[in-house]
Amino acid sequence: MPLHYLQGLRDTPLPVTVTDPEGVRRIEMLLAAQLLVARLERAGVYCMPHAATVLEITADGFALLQRLDAKARTSAPNG
Predict the structure, then answer these.
(1) How far lies 10's CA from each of 19, 36, 58, in Å?
(2) What is the DSSP track for 43-64?
(3) 8, 24, 31, 53 — which has fewest CB within 10 A?
């Protein structure tokens, strides 16, 4: 899931380059949702990207992560 991928990127020193196809696909979705800033590397104009470099997580991305963390804390069982 892309949001779990975003959570993983939060603790990763940026910029980071991703080359696995599933990771690139997740970065494309997060980029489309404007949750991060990334550069996609393509072999040609109409080709699928073969690599993505994540440059930063946007303010909207950090706000979403904070909301997810707050929701996880409030829904965690007290036991």
Answers:
(1) 18, 10, 11
(2) SSTTSPEEEEEEEEE-HHHHHH
(3) 8
